[in-house]
Amino acid sequence: MTEEIIIAGFGGQGVLSMGKILAYSGAMQDKEVSWMPSYGPEMRGGTANVSVIISDQRISSPIISQFDTAIILNQQSLDKFEKSVKPGGVLLYDPNGVINPPKRTDINIYKVSATEKSAELGLAKVFNMMVLGAYLKIKPVVTEEFIEKGLMKSLPERHHGLIPENLKAVQTGKELVEAVRTL
Amino acid sequence: MAKELKLMKGNEAIAEAAIRSGCDGYFGYPITPQSEVMEYLMAEKPWERTGMVVLQAESETSSINMVYGGAGVGKKVMTSSSSPGISLMQEGLTYLAGAELPAIIANVVRGGPGLGTIQPSQADYFQATKGGGHGDYQLFVLAPATVQEMYDFVFLGWEIAFKYRNPVMILSDGAIGQVMEKLYVGDYVPRWTDEELKKNAPWASYGKPANREHHIITSLELDSAKQEEHNHKLQAKYREMEEKEVRFETIDCEDADYIFVAYGSSARIAQKAIQLGREKGIKVGLLRPITLFPFPKKPIAEFSKKVKGILTVEMSAGQMVEDVRLAAEFRCPVEHFGRYGGIIHTPHEVLEALEEKIIKAK
Amino acid sequence: MFNPDIVKPENLVYKRTDVLTKAVMHYCPGCGHGTTHRIVAEVIEEMGIQDKAICIAPVGCSVLAYNYFEVDSLGAAHGRAPALATAIQRLFPDHHTFTYQGDGDLAAIGTAETIHACNRGENIVIIFINNGIYGMTGGQMAPTTLIGMKTATSPYGRTVELNGYPLQITELLAELPGTYYVTRQSVHTAAAVRKTKRAIRQAFENQKNKKGTSFVEVVSNCNSGWKMTAPKANEWMVENMFVKYPIGDIKVDGEKVK
Ligand SMILES: Cc1ncc(C[n+]2csc(CCOP(=O)(O)OP(=O)(O)O)c2C)c(N)n1
Ligand code: SF4
Ligand SMILES: [Mg+2]
Asked: Looking at the domain B248-359, which fold is it?
């Protein structure tokens, strides 16, 4: 199994940390992982993206241009990465602020209204964990047990009190995800 | 040795390795894409645990000269930077080489020329392996391709640097600096005591005891005859490195009709291109130089007798290809492929280049 | 004339310090470099810190200072001595690292290293030989060259229009909170030598007490570069250099002298 993922959105949406938690969880589950951020001034307020690879084998290139899954959190990123999903792959997006929804018909498209839901629950901080939950519902590449371990490893100890809240958000995300168009 | 699993960026791995390998001092100046090295060290405060000194200098000129000072008194000292900063360090590097001082310089390369881009590049191969500063000298150049190697090569770097009394450059790029991967770290190697320092760096200017003459660390020799002699000694050392310290890795080369020669990030990308190629029935392998100086000339020469063609892959306009051609001596076609200026080639592009430049061109 | 009978320990009035090697110095006769070397070496001997003293030689006429000081030494690249000293003193906090630099080295090419080492308050001693010229390279203009002074690269005399003003780097450094002791001395008379030696002693004592940067400027002649006899050069120095670069303490115990 090799899963190549891009997560893209605005800086501040927790794109990088979502990728990190996913990578940590994979590592805890004894998989090979890599996490490659876009870096530089574009991260300051603008868009941010990170590619994450989770694999049973040694990862050759951490730098990839074609993805099994794209997790998209704003219009710009959708415009940029829709075309980079491998045929038959998955595109998961949050419809908040998206005016031109994805058009491809050779991939599986899902949406998760995490922005709306997290605002409704007053849980904007764990928005990204809802999205992660939605992704894991579609592709259970790591199990819940290891998500918890990944959180423990990636969050500094003083924030470990927040783990239950994060796990709940993952659960909410799983319930929230909807298929738009699947093959 | 107890191995502990971590997930870290390449830059952080260098910093963690510094602390764990008993480094005495790190001197640096911020520059993207390697600023995490000093940021990590400052956050970790190793001076409270191991006594390691960490200092932000006023420029790369200063940081490399701080390294020169620390190395001259026999301490394990290092710096890191990226291309424009490394250019500024060239003066210090040739002085280090001339005075035969051990030190580690990590270069997380970005695209140039000039201020260029902050994105990854491998266009500083010439600068790293062919001098960069003035005079006949060589840095020992290690090219990590993984976060684990970013870590491991700090340990290896100290070994080589002190064995040969020569500066060691760890030449990576923005991609390896920024990527986060699994990393296994080992036990802490304690910093040298004063006694150990005197044993491991007996030549150093650590303070003159009453029972010996003073030590002088310098690269100056006004007597040309002596300077030539010194140069002979340096050259002999470089030849010894070529004899004993060449490191490389081969992947899928046993049955290969073609090989890629690529180091660092490009080697990772080439590995993926091999998978793609083999799916299409193209038997291609990879020779990954781990030391860029000394360069794996002999294995490349051997392959040039066996394969139908070699493609070097490097994020540059074609630098390492010159060394590969010299090693292959026209026994087989040798071409270069690479995106540059901060663009990273994709595995598909690499495979396509192999097909276009080597396979079809025949 | 030589009477071997008087060579007895009780008659000893002057002795070459063992902190200087027996190498014959290459300095021009009458140049201040040699005298300054001697008093630095004497201070190191008197304080018993030879095993902890680390000399950082510059690039300039004193590039070979490490051949004369019988202490462990390093030759720095032009201007970089304070960077070396910074690292060494931090790595060996109980050592006595000192730099010995000319005006070109310290106040032109190495200005950044100098200012930042002083600003960080590095616990080092800086000995600064200001002769208003690049002695080593054949008498070119230095940042400290006086207005009107003729040098190889200001053959008609330095002008403000072309070259700006002589740089009073020492006053500038005294403004930085990191400097603990800043003084300007000379070595052209026996009395001046004694005072300078006291200043250098003070600098190394400060270092022992971990007070921060101690900076001792020595205004010196470069008789060759100035194209004068040594006595004439000293006279010219008193009449001209001392006007722009007045002798005396500028900062003592961290306080500016009024
Ligand atoms: C990078 C570099 N640039 C220029 C030189 C040439 N150079 C050698 S000594 C010197 C000037 C030294 O003058 P100063 O520091 O005043 O010392 P002095 O000889 O007067 O004692 C110069 C420019 C050099 N060695 N290195
Ligand atoms: S050239 Fe000037 S500074 Fe150099 S030794 Fe002669 S007199 Fe002294
Ligand atoms: Mg001078």
From this structure: Rossmann fold (3.40.50)
